[in-house]
Amino acid sequence: MPTNELRTRVLLAAADDPGKCAVRDVLDHLAGKWSTLVLLYLDDGPRRFGALRRGVPRISKRMLTQTLRELERDGFITRHAFPTKLPSVEYRLSPLGESFLVPLRALIVWVEKQHGQIRRARTRYDARAD
Amino acid sequence: MPTNELRTRVLLAAADDPGKCAVRDVLDHLAGKWSTLVLLYLDDGPRRFGALRRGVPRISKRMLTQTLRELERDGFITRHAFPTKLPSVEYRLSPLGESFLVPLRALIVWVEKQHGQIRRARTRYDARAD
DNA sequence: CAGGATCCAGAAAGATACTG
DNA sequence: CAGTATCTTTCTGGATCCTG
């Protein structure tokens, strides 16, 4: 699997149409402040809306709803509404979502490992720039 | 390496201070429209500013400059200015940047593989929602 | 409880013009 | 060539109020 080939496909896809570039397509919504945190949180098991609000710090109702909709739309999570007296809705990872967590977690591990180095690079850069 | 532990650290870090959450910290700037594309493009070797502009479709001078600065600041790339008559500046991946491409590329491979499934999930969702 | 609807301030990003 | 500066537009997300 030649690197160039991968890169070329990526860039050409981006050039043609943002909607057809797989990388941008998924990275964009992974980029949202919250998607990643919600996915990681759901990795511990199904959770209800309220539990997610409490579990993901500082997220607003609006953003949580929006994030959940996007993740559901893309097939990363599923939504189960129980028609109880007061509505109760449960979200859980789909197989697709679970499989996504594998490369995502690898990236996170890298980040955690290198974070110190990145922070030092920043300090150095900022010091040089006054 | 227990999953829970990783998740917990992530969430607590996010709760405390956005600037200290490693995941958000790096994901945020990976999320920018262009960082990923620039990094992948530079994986083929050092490139000059103009070459990057032509190579990364539709990027504006402003955004390219900004992206390069951030990547340089975080230590992912290095910048070499040659004091020729007309300025010439070359950018190249640092070892840190190269090592970052490993997990990043794994994520991209996943995305490319599953993109069809994601798109189908979207179509299905949109069809149901009318 | 789990949202939907609306308003609005601030950040992000495109277009354009200028410079060492 | 490789940027910087400025203006303008678009987008994002928080706050608030409402509902089945």
The amount of beta strand of chain A, in percent, is 5-15%
Tell me the quaternary state. Answer: homodimer
Structural class of chain A: mainly alpha
Low-pLDDT stretches of chain A: none
Helical percentage of chain A:
55-70%
How would you summarize what this structure contains?
The structure is a homodimer of 130-residue chains. Chain A is mainly alpha-helical and 130 residues long. Chain A has 6 helices and 3 strands; from the N terminus they run H-H-H-E-H-H-E-E-H.
Could you describe the 3D structure shown?
Two copies of one chain form a homodimer. Chain A has 130 residues and is mainly alpha-helical. Helices cover 66% and strands 11% of the residues of chain A. Chain A contains six helices and three strands. The first copy, chain A, has helices at 3-16, 22-31, 35-42, 49-55, 61-73, 95-128; strands at 47-48, 77-82, 88-93. Chain A has a three-stranded antiparallel β-sheet with strand order 1-3-2. In chain A, strand 2 (77-82) and strand 3 form a beta hairpin. The first copy, chain A, is globular and about 60 Å long. In chain A, 30% of the residues are buried. The model of chain A has no long low-confidence stretch (mean pLDDT 86). The structure holds a DNA duplex (20 and 20 nucleotides).
